[in-house]
Amino acid sequence: MRDLAVSVKCYDGKYLVDMAKKVINVRNVSKSFGKVQAVRELSFSVEAGCCFGFLGPNGAGKTTAMKMVYGKCLRDKNYDSRMDIFGYDPAENELAIKYLSGVVQQENNLDDELNVIQNLMIYSRFYNMPVKVSKQRIEYLLDFLELSEKADSKIKELSGGMKRRLVIARALLNSPRLLILDEPTTGLDPQVRHLIWNKIRQLQKQETTVLLTTHYMEEAFQLCDRLLIMHKGQKIAEGKPENLLEENIERYVIDILDAESGQQIQNDVLLSNVRADVGPDVMRYYSNNIDMLKNLAASYLESGNYLIRQTNLEDVFLRLTGRQLNDRQ
User: Fold this and answer.
1) What integer is the mean pLDDT of 198-210?
2) Is the pTM of this model over 0.90?
3) CATH no. for 250-310
4) Cα separation of 30 and 27, whole Å?
5) Residue 137, number of CB atoms within 10 A of its CB
6) Contact 74/47 with Cβ under 8 angstroms?
7) What percent of the chain has a predicted confidence (pLDDT) above 90?
8) Confidence category of residue 9, pLDDT binned at 50, 70, 90
9) Which is it for the CA torsion 303, 309, 314, 318, positive or negative?
10) What are the strands, taking DSSP E only, across 139-233?
11) Cβ distance 86 to 177 under 8 Å?
């Protein structure tokens, strides 16, 4: 059952972790809530020290999948399903997994009547941490997340970005081997977002495995070593961000802001090696040949009415999941 990372001795006598070992293995897992099947036969694995990301529209099943990993939500009973989290099955060893994990949920569920240190001290008691150890760990985490100056501040006095960093600090109190982040930077300004990105990268260097859900495609591309895209409870794609781009989308796209001009191109030209994506307000033409897109723009479009750019993860996401709103959103 246990598929833990193996320790190997290096030249100076210290022990290092073999980072190639899988520490999370999920096979054929499903979860239903009444008539709604939130997750359908989901399988994935995560290597130690990896940042593994879930992408998908609202209602795709991302949060449910994460909750099953740390035992808050139990999977449907199925003889063929399997979950191995650091050697433990959440259905049987939920507490053991929670002791190895830190969880940042979507909402900032802090106690508004307490100050920053008090919020952390109370939480440390769940792990039976000695007071002296707790104080040292809290001091380190406040410094790590640049909150030291707010140690005695009430929660209601903090900005949104500070609250989010405090929730992350709380999740790190027990020095978790697995950090679970459910949309950690939603609604934050770019400066705070980049600060949190840098902290996540530092945690990875300390061999912390990270599970992440996000709606920010740039965040997913910047942070995740591997991505799983979900739609209506199912996995529809998985791989390294750069491979998802290479395998699922052309290299270049022209965004046309005037739909009439875009339609004229489609009516007048036989577009070999060009793929059209018709939206209600914006038309897009995709191609691996940038010169072809430039020629189309020069022949049909006015300056300022279009943008030629490299495709990105958002283009992949929309191609795989569609541009229409999910009926479960």
Assistant:
1) 94
2) no
3) 3.30.70.860
4) 9
5) 19
6) no
7) 72
8) very low
9) positive
10) 178-182, 209-213, 226-231
11) yes
